[in-house]
Structures are given as structure tokens and as C-alpha cells.
Amino acid sequence: MAAIPFNKPVITQILSIGNASPPIEADQPILPGYSLVLIGTQLLGTGPTSVIVGGREVFPDDADITPSNIVVAIPVGVNAGNQSVQVVQQTLLGRPPVPHRGVESDPASFVLRPVILNIQTSTGVSNVTALPVTQLDITLDPPVAAAQNVVLLLNQVPQAGSPPGTPLSYSFVAPPPYPLASPPLSPPPPNPVVSIPYFGVTPGPYLVRVQVDGAESVLTQASTGLFNNPQVSSDERVDP
After folding, report:
1. Final residue before a domain boundary, out of 85, 112, 139
2. Which end of the chain is less crowded, N or C, counting CB atoms within 10 A of the terminal residue's CB?
3. Distance between CA atoms of residues 58 and 56, nearest Å
4. Total domain count for the chain?
5. What is the DSSP track for 144-165?
6. Based on the domain organization, do 155 and 228 belong to the same domain?
7. Same domain, 49 and 66
């Protein structure tokens, strides 16, 4: 029988680092392809240390683990939305020694925000009414699971000569990813393209955001500080 010291790891803060832009920023949105920076105490165990991110176990490089922080890449396949992260310190037991799950931190939470990769306007058939619709086909990273809730947000971009007042805004809920009359026997795999019908939109340019399970995509800013992308143009009013 082996005596196992009880030094429970504790996560006190979660930061992020963009793999293409090394600075760590406290208020930086956490996006696909980023790494989490876990701040805490007793994060380095005596055996192998793993991190469970959104239900997927990752083994960071030894160089990325210290007693006070761990840097771990967000694995592919983690859905957008509220996710958990947990540090697991493996214990070597047996002869020969084999790693076993030892002490674990309490789960901590972070929000993985979706990224809009592409937007196309098309016509399709509603999965709810089976009627023709005008829709935005939005490519997202990470892909969206069938059970996730998706909401499209449109915010009017003021133009020179626009009448005074608050710019218009609209929201549209994405329909189910398959026809309600014939649901599949098992949920379809996550799909990077979400088709969202829209109607009654006043012509003009609009900033586009998408919420996936409440996690909102990020807008980019111009040098003036104003938000400028992604955008879509509604060239004609579309009625239901």
C-alpha cells in the first residue's frame, strides 16, 4: 500500500493566450485555437499532470506546468459556450508503476466564444414550416452541435445621412438542424455551417454576431475604435 500525499490543486484564475499573439491579457475573449493559462496553487504534482478541458483530457508539456500556473491548448472538439476545466494529478501505482487518477482540482469555468469565419446569403426551405426562406449561412468555429441554441444578432451600421435615432437591431433564433417531421435516429455530428432565416430587415449594412449557448462571437474594431466587422448588407426588405 502506498501513502499518497494530499495536496489538492486549486485553480484561482483563468486567463488566455492567443497562439499567434503571445501577450496574456486579463480580459481577452477566449477563442478556438487559444491556450488557457490556469493560475492557482499546487498545480504541479509528483506524477504526470493532465487537464480536462470541456470533457477532453490533455497532457500539457512539462515545460508548461509550474506549481502556480499551467498553459494548455484548448483541444479541438470543445463546443462554444460555458465550459469547465479541471487539473488532475496522476499518481504512479503498481509494479511497474502505472498512472492512476489521483487528486483533482474543483472544476472552474470559462466561456469559449465562437468565431464567424464566413457569411453567405441564400434561399432555403424552413425545417419548421417547410416554406421558402431567405437565410444567412454562417460558418462558425467551433462547429455547432445539434442540441446547441444559436441566435443571430444584427445591428444596423449608421450611414452618412441616416435619420437621427438609435440604430435598428434584430435577433433571430436558428431553427433545428433537421426537419421536425423526420428527426434522425441519432444526433448529427457538429456542423460548422448554421443557416438562420431572417425577415423584415430594413435595407442597409449590419454588424453580425452569433450567440451559441449564450457565448457571443466577437466584433473587430477599426482604428477609430468603432466596430466594423463582420458585416452583411440587407439590400431589400424580406417579409415572412
Report:
1. 112
2. N
3. 7
4. 2
5. EPTT--EEEEEEE---TTPPSS
6. yes
7. yes
Residue 14, strand partner residues: 38
Q: What is the mean pLDDT of residues 143-164?
A: 87
Asked whether the predicted pLDDT for residue 240 surpasses 60, the reply is no
Tell me the residue range of the domain where 165 lies.
115-234
Q: Could you tell me the end-to-end alpha-carbon distance of the chain, in angstroms, rounded to an integer?
A: 71
User: Do 121 and 230 share a domain, yes or no?
Assistant: yes
CA distances from 230 to 136, 227, 235 (A): 13, 9, 16
Is the model's pLDDT at 58 over the cut of 90? yes
pLDDT of 28 strictly over 70: yes
In a domain, 2, yes or no: no
Q: Quick check: is 5 in a domain?
A: no
pLDDT surpassing 60 at residue 76: yes
- Maximal C-alpha separation, the chain: 80
Q: Which residues contact 145 (CB under 8 A, 6 or more apart)?
A: 79, 187, 190
Q: Coil, helix or strand for 63?
A: helix
Q: What is the DSSP letter of 229?
A: E
